[in-house]
Amino acid sequence: MDSKDGLRGQVFTRRALILSGMGGLAFAGLAGRLYMLQVVNGEHYTRLAERNRIDERLLAPRRGTIYDRFGVELAINRQNYRLLLVPEATPDVDALLERLKGLVELTDGQLRRIQRDIARNTAFVPVTVAENLDWEVFAYLNANLLDFPGIQPDVGDTRVYPYPEVLSHVVGYVGLVSERDVAEHGETEAPELRIPGFRIGKEGIEAAFEEDLRGRAGQRHVEVNASGRLIREITRTPGESGEDLVLTIDFGLQKFAADRVKGESAAITVMDVHTGDLLALVSEPGFDSNLFNRGVPASVYRQWQNDPFNPLYNKATKGLFPPGSTFKMVVALAALESGLVGPNDTVWCRGRVELGVDSFHCWKREGHGTVNMHRSIKESCDIYYYEIARRVGIEKIADVAMRFGLGSDYGFVLPHTYAGTVPTPEFKRARKKGAWQQYDTLMTGIGQGYLQATPLQLAVMTARLVNGGREVNPRLVRAVGERLLEPPPAASLNADPRHLDIVLKAMNAVVNEPSGTALGSRLRGEGLSMGGKTGTAQVRKITLAERVTGVRKNEEMPWELRDHALFCGYGPIDAPRYAVSVVVEHGGGGSSTAAPIARDVLREALERDPARQPAFRPLARGLPAREGPDPERGQG
Amino acid sequence: MLDTSFAGAAAPSALVDKLLEINWGLIFFLTLVACIGFAMLYSAAGGSFDPWAKAQMIRFVLGLAVLFIVAMIDPRVWMSLAYPAYGFALLLLIAVFLVGEIGGGARRWLDLGPVNLQPSELMKVTLILALARYFHGLTFARVSNPLFLVPAFLMMALPAALVIKQPDLGTGLLILGIGVGLIFLAGLQWRLILGSLAAAGAAVFAFGDWVWNSLLEEYQRNRILTLFNPELDPQGTGFHIIQAKIALGSGGIWGKGFMQGTQSHLDFLPERQTDFIFSMLAEEFGLMGCVFLMAVYLIILGYGVSIAISTRSHFTRLLAMGVTINFLFYIVINMAMVMGMIPVVGVPLPLVSYGGTAMIVLMFGFGLLMSAHVHRELEIPRAGALF
């Protein structure tokens, strides 16, 4: 028994040692594996752990403010007081929302949206409950947070337009970034576009100067846990705020002009004839550009679209109108330059003229009698212009029209600025409308036919006529950040000063001489005076039958068939400073409707002369305004 | 007879004498490992004794008391209790199996009012006891006799099958490992060992497909598949393995420092207080910390082997070695698992991982080891059971 037991004892000992050896081998294997993972591949895994841990987040830059020329804020960032709800910190979401209903407005649709957001996200992701709260409500909630478990008050930036209706077309608006915007701007160059809720300029100056206004995103490295929850901030690189913009617009004048044509579908442009600064660029009616920031309700958008006054459309830069009689200065100048017509050559107006098979009418049925150039402009005789257009020819007229600013968009800053049409035989052929006829030349001669111009172009045309024949271009932005933009020196248009003098004298007579078409809109007062030219653009063709029975008056016709009322004005007479164009869509006659508006706007402009007021300089960011001499040139 | 009486006199009988025989070195190293566990659990809770470290300390103290009590008891008592205890554990396993069948899902725990009992843990210890008693009563020649081998095989295979069906592949394999180890230690002839290895190979070849498709659960198959290619499913099953390897590898040589592990503290590491606590140790203390813990484990294993070899009766030898093998398997399987060498099978790191049953059962096992040491001079006759 002993020997037997001894044998199994020996076998046990041997095998126990064999097992120990195997165990040792297993440990050696484990140690080897550890060495591989921790030492050989340690750096690789360290990188992976860091990538796990660190999350890069972008900080939205502050968008630049837009000012008018005197520092009135036109587009600002207002603190947006909003309420966020953290579902995981909220014991009873429904009860909490029910309680909030007493304080903030929550529609059923919003409640559904909140519940959907909660269901869609992880429980620690804050969900927006309400935005743009009143300070009183926000402060109350802040003070009583303990009663609203899970509610997080938050302050964000939101773009606000203090005067949305007055400047909706000039300033434009911002909206959420679309996939197309990302593709257009390039994601690598503009990472901020990927910030949730980030907004970029969609229209107007906001869109045209997007790159300057936007600024650059800051970066924040944060430590996150496995489910993405923020644990702590590691580093923060502040971004760069966007540049502020100073416009050429004088908000006071803009508002005055807009109010003056309230209730009409109209466009008014006021332009400095030397610098090209646009002091007012009105398109009435406007729209509430603030709505675009939050999303325009479908009902409102439909209403805008169905409005015959087309509030979304910028009539000042996109509205194409036949310039009508306001074009007569160009034809007169073309006649003088051609040498075929002298200022004292006369045409006999008997109210109508037959040329070939066509019969052409003057607006004055009984005729003007003997008409020279001065009278032709002052009294706006159509027969005179049929005649000289026929003599001068379309090429010369088109040449002068283009030199004086028609048919061009000037590379103007607002998106969608239309160039209009200065018709030529080539144009007509290209449009497949057949060969150029004498009829076409005559219609162009009185500013009708294929000829089309925007209200902005009419102001530019007027400015170039009255500033001594220099090629001034319109501009809307005076300064980007601290950088003042100088208007480029205006090149000469090579117009004979004597010719221009003849035209200007006639424009003066329109307003200030007996039988001038705008005599009723004469501007009186110290240092106040206006010259200009009326225009009434026909929308429909007047039939022969109607001419027999008597042309219908505008008031007798439906709105959309009435004539457009136009006026191109300038002042003061002795040293022209501002050009004004007024177009009232289907507004009736130029002298009865447009001229009085132009007179009032020009008076306001002259009385607000910026030379008498301190010019605004943009603030150096973070520094107080600098004292110093007025940097503005040529104002005096 | 004379030999027996002499041996009986040499064995310490008074409690004080027995206490003097306690191996304090082993107690020290066990406590050292447990303390490493406390530190890691403190860190896992983000620098707090709650909810894990304090509870674990209480359990360890309780475990130490169990160890001392078990160590004082004569091995012959344990020998006598071996079969009834084994039978009891088997009944519990069957009960769990039936409850699981009725409940219609995986089930490991038996809910006995306030106590959650994990019968598979109990089974490991009682299997060691039962097999040690069985082979103690066999002559050496009979060990390799198939007639006497079959009962031993059944004693091991029956609970293993029940546990694997729970399904708990890890513990099931541990039970098989303990059984095979003890049969090997009992002196099974080499030709039978090699023969059965060949047979097992043939069986895998023949029935491997069937086992893979029918016996293994979907989640077990996925674990095995993602082990070999975790990137197959980086957010699902593979996520734990990838994150555990990142935690472990990013520790480098010296580690990120106590409580500085980013993977563990930012919740990337799954089950950091239980099965994956070694990854956390590796992240915070690096290769040095890991090697230190492994060295302490080796010392404890060394104590086990040396006690097993030096004790005089076959029952205590097998008992001591069984406890040691169990401990070794725990360590190797857990570490291989967190290092991504074998599938995630749910085996804790002994004395370090948070867990109640495992801690008490382990300390009970070390109590048996200590009892073998205290009573190492005791000789037990072949039919030495007291009842």
Q: Could you explain the architecture of this structure?
A:
With 636 residues, chain A is an alpha+beta fold. Chain A has two domains: 57-247, Penicillin-binding protein 2a (Domain 2); 322-603, Beta-lactamase (3-Layer(aba) Sandwich), CATH 3.40.710.10. In chain A, strands 2, 3, 4, 5, 10, 17 and 18 form a seven-stranded mixed β-sheet that branches. In chain A, a hairpin with a 6-residue loop joins strand 20 and strand 21 (578-584). Chain A starts with a helix and ends in a 29-residue tail after the last helix. With 387 residues, chain B is mostly helical. Chain B folds into two domains: 28-72 and 219-377, no CATH class; 74-189. Chain B has helices spanning 2-10, 15-21, 24-44, 53-72, 75-103, 119-136, 140-143, 146-164, 169-186, 190-215, 218-228, 237-249, 262-265, 277-310, 314-338, 356-374; strands at 110-112, 115-117. In chain B, strand 1 and strand 2 form a beta hairpin. The two termini of chain B are 21 Å apart.
